[in-house]
Protein backbone atom coordinates (compact mmCIF):
# COMPACT_ATOMS: atom_id res chain seq x y z
CA UNK A 1 0.00 0.00 0.00
CA UNK A 2 1.40 3.42 -0.98
CA UNK A 3 0.92 6.23 1.54
CA UNK A 4 0.84 9.94 0.74
CA UNK A 5 0.63 13.10 2.87
CA UNK A 6 -1.64 15.83 1.57
CA UNK A 7 -1.56 19.58 2.05
CA UNK A 8 -3.99 19.49 4.97
CA UNK A 9 -1.85 17.03 6.87
CA UNK A 10 -3.81 13.84 6.23
CA UNK A 11 -2.39 10.44 5.41
CA UNK A 12 -4.07 8.61 2.57
CA UNK A 13 -3.62 5.69 0.19
CA UNK A 14 -2.70 6.22 -3.46
CA UNK A 15 -4.56 4.37 -6.18
CA UNK A 16 -3.12 3.33 -9.53
CA UNK A 17 -3.71 6.82 -10.99
CA UNK A 18 -1.82 8.50 -8.18
CA UNK A 19 -5.00 9.89 -6.65
CA UNK A 20 -5.15 9.56 -2.90
CA UNK A 21 -7.99 8.77 -0.54
CA UNK A 22 -7.32 10.82 2.58
CA UNK A 23 -9.31 9.20 5.35
CA UNK A 24 -9.05 12.06 7.83
CA UNK A 25 -10.17 14.61 5.25
CA UNK A 26 -13.22 12.64 4.12
CA UNK A 27 -14.11 11.81 7.71
CA UNK A 28 -14.19 15.54 8.46
CA UNK A 29 -16.34 16.23 5.41
CA UNK A 30 -18.79 13.47 6.34
CA UNK A 31 -18.99 14.81 9.91
CA UNK A 32 -19.42 18.43 8.77
CA UNK A 33 -22.05 17.77 6.13
CA UNK A 34 -24.18 15.49 8.30
CA UNK A 35 -24.11 18.03 11.14
CA UNK A 36 -24.97 20.90 8.80
CA UNK A 37 -27.93 19.05 7.27
CA UNK A 38 -29.27 17.41 10.43
CA UNK A 39 -28.51 13.82 9.43
CA UNK A 40 -28.38 11.81 12.69
CA UNK A 41 -26.06 9.09 11.41
CA UNK A 42 -24.40 7.94 8.21
CA UNK A 43 -21.86 5.52 6.79
CA UNK A 44 -19.72 6.00 3.72
CA UNK A 45 -17.84 3.34 1.76
CA UNK A 46 -15.47 4.10 -1.10
CA UNK A 47 -13.79 1.68 -3.50
CA UNK A 48 -10.77 3.25 -5.19
CA UNK A 49 -7.49 1.76 -6.37
CA UNK A 50 -8.75 -1.68 -5.38
CA UNK A 51 -9.08 -0.65 -1.71
CA UNK A 52 -12.33 -0.20 0.23
CA UNK A 53 -12.49 2.55 2.85
CA UNK A 54 -15.39 2.62 5.32
CA UNK A 55 -16.31 5.64 7.48
CA UNK A 56 -19.12 6.46 9.91
CA UNK A 57 -20.52 9.45 11.74
CA UNK A 58 -23.22 10.36 14.24
CA UNK A 59 -25.69 8.06 15.96
CA UNK A 60 -27.93 5.22 14.83
CA UNK A 61 -30.80 6.40 17.01
CA UNK A 62 -31.17 9.86 18.55
CA UNK A 63 -33.28 8.37 21.34
CA UNK A 64 -30.58 5.93 22.49
CA UNK A 65 -27.43 7.70 21.36
CA UNK A 66 -25.84 4.49 20.04
CA UNK A 67 -22.91 5.56 17.82
CA UNK A 68 -22.84 4.71 14.14
CA UNK A 69 -19.98 2.40 13.14
CA UNK A 70 -18.78 1.49 9.63
CA UNK A 71 -20.32 -1.97 9.92
CA UNK A 72 -23.77 -0.67 10.92
CA UNK A 73 -26.68 -1.75 8.73
CA UNK A 74 -29.34 0.47 7.17
CA UNK A 75 -32.44 0.08 5.02
CA UNK A 76 -31.33 0.50 1.41
CA UNK A 77 -34.79 1.02 -0.09
CA UNK A 78 -34.96 0.74 -3.87
CA UNK A 79 -31.33 -0.27 -4.27
CA UNK A 80 -32.86 -3.71 -3.71
CA UNK A 81 -34.05 -3.49 -7.32
CA UNK A 82 -30.49 -3.80 -8.59
CA UNK A 83 -30.03 -6.94 -6.49
CA UNK A 84 -33.21 -8.44 -7.96
CA UNK A 85 -32.08 -7.44 -11.45
CA UNK A 86 -28.76 -9.17 -10.75
CA UNK A 87 -30.59 -12.40 -9.91
CA UNK A 88 -32.73 -12.16 -13.05
CA UNK A 89 -29.74 -11.40 -15.28
CA UNK A 90 -27.82 -14.30 -13.81
CA UNK A 91 -30.66 -16.56 -14.95
CA UNK A 92 -30.60 -14.88 -18.36
CA UNK A 93 -26.84 -15.32 -18.64
CA UNK A 94 -27.15 -18.98 -17.74
CA UNK A 95 -29.71 -19.52 -20.51
CA UNK A 96 -32.55 -20.24 -18.10
CA UNK A 97 -34.55 -17.15 -19.08
CA UNK A 98 -34.95 -14.96 -22.17
CA UNK A 99 -35.07 -11.20 -21.73
CA UNK A 100 -37.75 -10.80 -24.34
CA UNK A 101 -39.99 -13.61 -23.17
CA UNK A 102 -43.49 -12.53 -22.21
CA UNK A 103 -43.91 -12.57 -18.45
CA UNK A 104 -47.13 -14.60 -18.74
CA UNK A 105 -45.18 -17.38 -20.46
CA UNK A 106 -43.13 -17.85 -17.28
CA UNK A 107 -45.78 -16.73 -14.76
CA UNK A 108 -49.22 -17.60 -16.14
CA UNK A 109 -50.78 -16.08 -13.01
CA UNK A 110 -49.44 -12.61 -13.90
CA UNK A 111 -52.09 -10.23 -15.23
CA UNK A 112 -53.23 -6.62 -15.37
CA UNK A 113 -56.73 -5.19 -15.94
CA UNK A 114 -55.69 -4.62 -19.58
CA UNK A 115 -55.78 -8.08 -21.16
CA UNK A 116 -54.00 -7.03 -24.35
CA UNK A 117 -51.22 -5.31 -22.41
CA UNK A 118 -50.79 -8.34 -20.19
CA UNK A 119 -50.04 -10.46 -23.25
CA UNK A 120 -47.06 -8.33 -24.36
CA UNK A 121 -45.21 -7.24 -21.19
CA UNK A 122 -41.71 -8.73 -21.23
CA UNK A 123 -38.99 -9.37 -18.67
CA UNK A 124 -36.85 -6.70 -20.37
CA UNK A 125 -39.63 -4.13 -19.95
CA UNK A 126 -40.04 -4.82 -16.24
CA UNK A 127 -36.28 -4.53 -15.69
CA UNK A 128 -36.09 -1.22 -17.57
CA UNK A 129 -39.29 0.31 -16.11
CA UNK A 130 -40.97 0.36 -19.53
CA UNK A 131 -43.64 -2.25 -18.83
CA UNK A 132 -46.22 0.34 -17.80
CA UNK A 133 -46.75 -1.18 -14.35
CA UNK A 134 -47.08 1.14 -11.38
CA UNK A 135 -44.86 1.66 -8.35
CA UNK A 136 -46.88 2.29 -5.24
CA UNK A 137 -49.04 -0.80 -4.86
CA UNK A 138 -48.13 -1.39 -1.23
CA UNK A 139 -49.89 -4.69 -0.61
CA UNK A 140 -49.18 -6.69 2.54
CA UNK A 141 -49.58 -10.33 1.57
CA UNK A 142 -48.31 -11.68 4.86
CA UNK A 143 -45.05 -13.01 6.26
CA UNK A 144 -45.19 -16.45 4.68
CA UNK A 145 -42.91 -17.81 1.99
CA UNK A 146 -45.86 -17.46 -0.41
CA UNK A 147 -46.01 -13.68 0.00
CA UNK A 148 -44.74 -12.89 -3.50
CA UNK A 149 -47.15 -15.34 -5.10
CA UNK A 150 -50.02 -13.72 -3.20
CA UNK A 151 -48.80 -10.23 -4.19
CA UNK A 152 -48.75 -11.16 -7.88
CA UNK A 153 -52.28 -12.50 -7.55
CA UNK A 154 -53.50 -9.29 -5.87
CA UNK A 155 -51.74 -7.11 -8.47
CA UNK A 156 -53.97 -8.47 -11.23
CA UNK A 157 -56.45 -5.69 -10.47
CA UNK A 158 -53.94 -2.81 -10.40
CA UNK A 159 -54.17 -0.43 -13.35
CA UNK A 160 -51.16 0.32 -15.54
CA UNK A 161 -49.61 3.79 -15.53
CA UNK A 162 -49.24 3.61 -19.31
CA UNK A 163 -49.22 1.06 -22.10
CA UNK A 164 -46.22 -1.31 -22.21
CA UNK A 165 -43.23 -0.05 -24.17
CA UNK A 166 -44.65 3.46 -24.48
CA UNK A 167 -42.59 5.30 -21.86
CA UNK A 168 -40.42 4.87 -18.82
CA UNK A 169 -42.35 4.91 -15.55
CA UNK A 170 -40.68 3.71 -12.38
CA UNK A 171 -42.44 0.46 -11.54
CA UNK A 172 -41.77 -1.29 -8.25
CA UNK A 173 -44.68 -3.66 -8.85
CA UNK A 174 -42.72 -5.08 -11.77
CA UNK A 175 -39.76 -5.88 -9.54
CA UNK A 176 -41.93 -7.86 -7.16
CA UNK A 177 -43.15 -9.79 -10.20
CA UNK A 178 -39.50 -10.36 -11.17
CA UNK A 179 -38.81 -11.59 -7.64
CA UNK A 180 -41.60 -14.13 -8.04
CA UNK A 181 -40.17 -15.14 -11.41
CA UNK A 182 -36.84 -15.86 -9.66
CA UNK A 183 -38.69 -18.07 -7.18
CA UNK A 184 -40.36 -20.09 -9.91
CA UNK A 185 -37.14 -20.65 -11.85
CA UNK A 186 -34.89 -21.43 -8.87
CA UNK A 187 -37.31 -23.27 -6.59
CA UNK A 188 -36.21 -21.00 -3.72
CA UNK A 189 -37.80 -18.00 -2.08
CA UNK A 190 -36.44 -14.69 -3.36
CA UNK A 191 -34.77 -14.21 0.02
CA UNK A 192 -32.98 -17.56 -0.14
CA UNK A 193 -32.02 -17.16 -3.80
CA UNK A 194 -30.41 -13.82 -2.99
CA UNK A 195 -28.48 -15.33 -0.09
CA UNK A 196 -27.31 -18.36 -2.04
CA UNK A 197 -26.54 -16.71 -5.37
CA UNK A 198 -25.29 -13.25 -4.37
CA UNK A 199 -24.68 -12.61 -0.66
CA UNK A 200 -22.82 -15.82 0.17
CA UNK A 201 -20.47 -16.02 -2.85
CA UNK A 202 -19.57 -12.33 -2.38
CA UNK A 203 -19.06 -12.69 1.37
CA UNK A 204 -21.68 -10.03 2.11
CA UNK A 205 -22.10 -10.86 5.78
CA UNK A 206 -24.04 -7.68 6.55
CA UNK A 207 -26.68 -8.01 3.86
CA UNK A 208 -30.10 -9.51 4.55
CA UNK A 209 -33.77 -9.25 3.60
CA UNK A 210 -35.78 -9.90 6.78
CA UNK A 211 -36.05 -7.50 9.73
CA UNK A 212 -35.29 -10.12 12.37
CA UNK A 213 -31.97 -10.85 10.68
CA UNK A 214 -30.85 -7.29 11.43
CA UNK A 215 -31.05 -7.91 15.19
CA UNK A 216 -27.56 -9.45 15.05
CA UNK A 217 -26.08 -6.12 14.02
CA UNK A 218 -26.01 -2.44 14.89
CA UNK A 219 -29.06 -1.27 12.94
CA UNK A 220 -29.94 2.32 12.05
CA UNK A 221 -33.30 3.67 13.21
CA UNK A 222 -35.38 5.73 10.77
CA UNK A 223 -35.85 9.41 11.64
CA UNK A 224 -38.49 11.86 10.42
CA UNK A 225 -38.86 15.62 10.86
CA UNK A 226 -39.19 19.04 9.27
CA UNK A 227 -36.48 20.22 6.86
CA UNK A 228 -33.73 22.20 8.57
CA UNK A 229 -34.32 20.64 11.99
CA UNK A 230 -32.98 17.60 13.82
CA UNK A 231 -35.38 14.74 13.06
CA UNK A 232 -36.83 12.44 15.70
CA UNK A 233 -36.95 8.64 15.64
CA UNK A 234 -39.83 7.41 13.48
CA UNK A 235 -42.80 5.67 15.16
CA UNK A 236 -41.72 2.40 13.54
CA UNK A 237 -38.43 1.21 12.10
CA UNK A 238 -39.80 -0.07 8.79
CA UNK A 239 -43.34 -0.11 7.42
CA UNK A 240 -42.76 -2.25 4.33
CA UNK A 241 -44.32 -5.71 4.12
CA UNK A 242 -42.21 -8.75 3.24
CA UNK A 243 -43.70 -8.73 -0.25
CA UNK A 244 -41.93 -5.43 -0.97
CA UNK A 245 -38.54 -7.10 -0.66
CA UNK A 246 -37.55 -7.48 -4.35
CA UNK A 247 -38.41 -3.83 -4.99
CA UNK A 248 -37.51 -2.11 -1.77
CA UNK A 249 -36.04 -3.95 1.19
CA UNK A 250 -32.51 -5.11 1.57
CA UNK A 251 -30.86 -4.31 4.89
CA UNK A 252 -27.16 -3.81 4.39
CA UNK A 253 -24.02 -1.83 5.15
CA UNK A 254 -22.43 0.72 2.86
CA UNK A 255 -19.37 -1.52 2.68
CA UNK A 256 -21.46 -4.43 1.41
CA UNK A 257 -23.08 -2.17 -1.20
CA UNK A 258 -19.64 -1.26 -2.51
CA UNK A 259 -18.57 -4.93 -2.52
CA UNK A 260 -21.70 -5.74 -4.52
CA UNK A 261 -20.76 -2.98 -6.99
CA UNK A 262 -17.20 -4.30 -7.11
CA UNK A 263 -18.51 -7.58 -8.52
CA UNK A 264 -20.22 -5.66 -11.33
CA UNK A 265 -17.01 -3.72 -11.99
CA UNK A 266 -15.16 -7.03 -12.19
CA UNK A 267 -17.45 -8.42 -14.88
CA UNK A 268 -19.30 -10.75 -12.51
CA UNK A 269 -16.36 -12.11 -10.51
CA UNK A 270 -16.10 -12.23 -6.73
CA UNK A 271 -12.75 -11.18 -5.17
CA UNK A 272 -11.74 -14.85 -4.84
CA UNK A 273 -12.40 -15.46 -8.54
CA UNK A 274 -15.80 -17.13 -8.12
CA UNK A 275 -18.08 -16.28 -11.03
CA UNK A 276 -21.29 -14.84 -9.64
CA UNK A 277 -22.67 -13.62 -12.98
CA UNK A 278 -21.80 -14.23 -16.63
CA UNK A 279 -19.82 -11.28 -18.02
CA UNK A 280 -22.27 -10.64 -20.85
CA UNK A 281 -25.15 -10.39 -18.35
CA UNK A 282 -23.19 -7.81 -16.34
CA UNK A 283 -22.55 -5.79 -19.51
CA UNK A 284 -26.20 -5.99 -20.58
CA UNK A 285 -27.34 -4.44 -17.30
CA UNK A 286 -25.25 -1.34 -18.08
CA UNK A 287 -26.49 -0.78 -21.64
CA UNK A 288 -29.06 1.96 -22.12
CA UNK A 289 -32.56 0.66 -22.72
CA UNK A 290 -34.46 3.94 -22.50
CA UNK A 291 -33.96 7.69 -22.04
CA UNK A 292 -35.83 9.41 -19.24
CA UNK A 293 -37.92 12.61 -19.29
CA UNK A 294 -36.97 13.41 -15.69
CA UNK A 295 -33.18 13.79 -15.60
CA UNK A 296 -33.06 15.30 -12.11
CA UNK A 297 -34.82 13.20 -9.46
CA UNK A 298 -32.11 10.54 -9.40
CA UNK A 299 -29.68 12.34 -11.77
CA UNK A 300 -30.75 9.85 -14.44
CA UNK A 301 -29.86 10.17 -18.10
CA UNK A 302 -31.23 6.74 -18.95
CA UNK A 303 -32.05 3.33 -17.59
CA UNK A 304 -30.42 -0.02 -18.20
CA UNK A 305 -31.59 -3.41 -16.95
CA UNK A 306 -31.79 -2.49 -13.28
CA UNK A 307 -29.14 0.24 -13.14
CA UNK A 308 -29.78 3.96 -13.39
CA UNK A 309 -27.34 5.30 -16.02
CA UNK A 310 -25.44 8.60 -15.91
CA UNK A 311 -23.49 10.67 -18.42
CA UNK A 312 -21.21 13.06 -16.57
CA UNK A 313 -19.82 15.22 -19.42
CA UNK A 314 -18.96 12.09 -21.37
CA UNK A 315 -17.93 9.97 -18.38
CA UNK A 316 -20.21 6.94 -18.06
CA UNK A 317 -21.52 5.83 -14.70
CA UNK A 318 -24.28 3.78 -13.13
CA UNK A 319 -25.91 3.37 -9.73
CA UNK A 320 -29.21 3.64 -7.87
CA UNK A 321 -30.88 5.53 -5.02
CA UNK A 322 -33.06 4.16 -2.26
CA UNK A 323 -35.49 5.57 0.30
CA UNK A 324 -37.22 3.73 3.13
CA UNK A 325 -39.30 5.94 5.44
CA UNK A 326 -36.57 8.22 6.76
CA UNK A 327 -33.54 6.27 5.56
CA UNK A 328 -31.82 7.21 2.30
CA UNK A 329 -29.09 5.37 0.40
CA UNK A 330 -27.01 6.31 -2.64
CA UNK A 331 -24.72 4.17 -4.81
CA UNK A 332 -22.58 5.45 -7.70
CA UNK A 333 -20.09 3.54 -9.87
CA UNK A 334 -17.56 4.97 -12.36
CA UNK A 335 -16.18 2.03 -14.37
CA UNK A 336 -13.34 3.84 -16.14
CA UNK A 337 -11.89 4.88 -12.78
CA UNK A 338 -12.69 1.66 -10.91
CA UNK A 339 -14.52 3.76 -8.32
CA UNK A 340 -17.68 2.93 -6.36
CA UNK A 341 -19.17 5.08 -3.59
CA UNK A 342 -22.04 4.23 -1.23
CA UNK A 343 -23.67 6.50 1.35
CA UNK A 344 -26.32 5.32 3.81
CA UNK A 345 -28.20 7.68 6.14
CA UNK A 346 -30.99 7.54 8.69
CA UNK A 347 -32.85 10.83 8.18
CA UNK A 348 -32.54 14.58 7.82
CA UNK A 349 -31.22 16.38 4.75
CA UNK A 350 -29.62 13.25 3.31
CA UNK A 351 -29.97 14.37 -0.29
CA UNK A 352 -27.98 17.51 0.42
CA UNK A 353 -25.20 15.51 2.08
CA UNK A 354 -25.12 13.15 -0.90
CA UNK A 355 -25.01 16.01 -3.41
CA UNK A 356 -22.09 17.82 -1.78
CA UNK A 357 -20.10 14.75 -0.77
CA UNK A 358 -20.42 12.84 -4.04
CA UNK A 359 -19.58 15.91 -6.12
CA UNK A 360 -16.34 16.25 -4.19
CA UNK A 361 -15.52 12.54 -4.04
CA UNK A 362 -16.19 11.75 -7.70
CA UNK A 363 -14.34 14.84 -8.88
CA UNK A 364 -11.31 13.91 -6.75
CA UNK A 365 -11.24 10.17 -7.37
CA UNK A 366 -12.77 9.77 -10.84
CA UNK A 367 -12.47 13.12 -12.59
CA UNK A 368 -16.26 13.38 -12.76
CA UNK A 369 -18.17 16.65 -12.81
CA UNK A 370 -21.66 15.97 -11.51
CA UNK A 371 -24.43 18.31 -12.71
CA UNK A 372 -25.41 21.34 -10.69
CA UNK A 373 -28.40 20.97 -8.37
CA UNK A 374 -31.82 21.16 -9.99
CA UNK A 375 -33.28 24.64 -9.51
CA UNK A 376 -35.36 27.26 -11.33
CA UNK A 377 -33.48 29.71 -13.55
CA UNK A 378 -32.05 32.89 -12.06
CA UNK A 379 -34.24 34.91 -14.41
CA UNK A 380 -37.92 33.88 -14.03
CA UNK A 381 -39.74 32.68 -17.13
CA UNK A 382 -43.46 32.84 -17.88
CA UNK A 383 -45.29 29.62 -18.68
CA UNK A 384 -49.01 29.05 -19.21
CA UNK A 385 -50.01 26.51 -16.55
CA UNK A 386 -53.56 26.08 -17.84
CA UNK A 387 -52.90 22.92 -19.91
CA UNK A 388 -51.45 21.18 -16.86
CA UNK A 389 -54.08 22.10 -14.24
CA UNK A 390 -56.12 19.12 -13.10
CA UNK A 391 -56.04 15.82 -11.23
CA UNK A 392 -53.64 12.98 -11.97
CA UNK A 393 -54.10 9.52 -10.48
CA UNK A 394 -52.27 6.22 -10.28
CA UNK A 395 -52.28 3.42 -7.73
CA UNK A 396 -51.38 4.85 -4.33
CA UNK A 397 -51.07 8.49 -5.38
CA UNK A 398 -53.25 11.46 -6.36
CA UNK A 399 -51.56 14.60 -7.72
CA UNK A 400 -53.53 17.85 -7.91
CA UNK A 401 -52.11 20.66 -10.02
CA UNK A 402 -53.53 24.13 -9.56
CA UNK A 403 -52.03 27.35 -10.92
CA UNK A 404 -48.51 27.51 -9.42
CA UNK A 405 -49.17 24.73 -6.84
CA UNK A 406 -48.88 20.94 -6.50
CA UNK A 407 -50.50 18.65 -3.93
CA UNK A 408 -49.07 15.11 -3.79
CA UNK A 409 -51.27 12.82 -1.71
CA UNK A 410 -50.77 9.18 -0.79
CA UNK A 411 -53.95 7.07 -0.98
CA UNK A 412 -55.01 3.40 -1.07
CA UNK A 413 -52.34 1.20 0.51
CA UNK A 414 -49.91 4.11 0.73
CA UNK A 415 -52.13 6.50 2.70
CA UNK A 416 -50.48 5.99 6.09
CA UNK A 417 -46.89 6.34 4.87
CA UNK A 418 -46.78 10.13 4.71
CA UNK A 419 -49.02 13.18 5.04
CA UNK A 420 -49.87 15.03 1.79
CA UNK A 421 -47.04 17.11 0.33
CA UNK A 422 -47.74 20.59 -1.01
CA UNK A 423 -45.45 23.01 -2.79
CA UNK A 424 -45.21 26.05 -5.03
CA UNK A 425 -44.28 25.45 -8.67
CA UNK A 426 -41.71 27.61 -10.47
CA UNK A 427 -41.16 27.16 -14.22
CA UNK A 428 -37.82 25.77 -15.39
CA UNK A 429 -38.95 25.26 -19.00
CA UNK A 430 -42.24 24.94 -20.89
CA UNK A 431 -42.90 21.51 -19.32
CA UNK A 432 -40.57 21.29 -16.31
CA UNK A 433 -41.26 22.94 -12.95
CA UNK A 434 -39.41 23.17 -9.64
CA UNK A 435 -41.43 22.39 -6.52
CA UNK A 436 -40.14 24.07 -3.37
CA UNK A 437 -40.71 23.13 0.24
CA UNK A 438 -41.02 19.37 -0.26
CA UNK A 439 -37.89 18.44 1.66
CA UNK A 440 -34.44 17.12 0.97
CA UNK A 441 -35.41 13.47 0.52
CA UNK A 442 -36.53 14.25 -3.04
CA UNK A 443 -33.80 16.68 -4.13
CA UNK A 444 -31.28 19.11 -2.73
CA UNK A 445 -33.71 22.02 -2.61
CA UNK A 446 -36.30 21.55 -5.34
CA UNK A 447 -38.30 18.59 -6.60
CA UNK A 448 -38.70 18.32 -10.39
CA UNK A 449 -42.25 18.10 -11.71
CA UNK A 450 -42.35 17.17 -15.40
CA UNK A 451 -45.36 17.20 -17.72
CA UNK A 452 -45.38 15.05 -20.84
CA UNK A 453 -47.73 13.72 -23.49
CA UNK A 454 -47.32 10.04 -24.34
CA UNK A 455 -47.49 8.75 -27.96
CA UNK A 456 -51.11 7.69 -27.43
CA UNK A 457 -52.06 11.24 -26.39
CA UNK A 458 -52.25 10.61 -22.63
CA UNK A 459 -51.17 13.58 -20.52
CA UNK A 460 -48.98 12.57 -17.59
CA UNK A 461 -47.24 14.25 -14.69
CA UNK A 462 -43.86 12.83 -13.68
CA UNK A 463 -42.89 13.10 -10.02
CA UNK A 464 -40.16 10.83 -8.71
CA UNK A 465 -39.79 9.18 -12.14
CA UNK A 466 -43.40 7.91 -11.98
CA UNK A 467 -45.78 8.73 -14.85
CA UNK A 468 -49.17 9.64 -13.39
CA UNK A 469 -52.00 9.91 -15.97
CA UNK A 470 -54.34 12.89 -15.98
CA UNK A 471 -57.89 11.88 -15.04
CA UNK A 472 -59.70 15.23 -14.98
CA UNK A 473 -59.17 18.93 -15.74
Structure description:
This protein is of the alpha+beta class and 473 residues long. 25% of the residues lie in helices and 25% in strands. It contains twelve helices and 24 strands. It has helices at 23-36, 80-93, 103-106, 115-118, 123-127, 147-154, 172-186, 190-202, 245-248, 254-265, 279-285, 350-366, and strands spanning 3-5, 11-14, 20-22, 41-48, 51-58, 74-75, 207-208, 223-224, 232-233, 251-252, 290-291, 302-303, 308-312, 315-323, 328-334, 339-345, 390-394, 397-402, 405-410, 421-427, 432-436, 446-453, 459-463, 466-472. Helix 1 packs antiparallel against helix 12 (350-366) and helix 6 (147-154) packs across helix 7 (172-186). 52% of the residues are buried.
What is the radius of gyration? Answer: 21 Å
Strand content of the residues, in percent? 15-25%
Question: How would the global form be characterised?
Answer: globular
- Summarize the main sheet: 8 strands, antiparallel
Q: What would you call the quaternary organization?
A: single chain
N- and C-termini, Cα separation: 64 Å
* Secondary-structure-derived class: alpha+beta
Count of alpha/pi helices: 12
Number of strands: 24
Query: Which range best describes the helical content: under 10%, 10-25%, 25-40%, 40-55%, 55-70% or over 70%?
Result: 10-25%
Low-confidence parts:
1-11, 14-18
Q: Walk across the major sheet and give the strand order.
A: 5-4-16-15-14-13-12-11
Average pLDDT, rounded to a whole number, is 92
